[in-house]
Design goal:
mainly alpha, two-stranded antiparallel sheet, single chain, globular
């Protein structure tokens, strides 16, 4: 349970960093970031695998680059579902998802994810 809460707080902090760096991504408060992190986790667990499967041929043709589009769509979906989070379009969602991915990789490397 403590690992889950730590992961939730770290994900919320990373979302706030993305909102501060990428213009077009706005998060109102820490509470909105926590809700956004929860929604992002659910979206990535349920909807993302389905989209990855359905777009597998396109992902193969683009050598995996289409996964960036899927990640951007997931961030836009979080902006639509979570209160207090706004994503102004596909461009900010693409840059925000790319930055979020890089930040998650960096945190995973620092903390030694399993």
């Amino acid at each position: 349970m403590i690992e889950f809460l730590a992961h939730l707080v770290i994900s919320a902090a990373l979302l706030l960093i993305v909102a501060n760096v990428v213009s077009g991504v706005q998060i109102d408060s820490w509470g909105s970031a926590i809700i956004g992190a929860l929604v992002l986790g659910v979206v990535n667990a349920i909807i993302r695998p389905l989209l990855v499967f359905l777009t597998l041929p396109l992902t193969i043709v683009t050598l995996g680059l289409f996964l960036l589009v899927i990640n951007a769509l997931m961030l836009q979906l979080v902006g639509a579902l979570a209160p207090g989070i706004q994503v102004a379009g596909f461009g900010p969602a693409l840059w925000g998802s790319l930055l979020l991915t890089l930040l998650n990789l960096a945190v995973g490397a620092l903390l030694g994810s399993r």
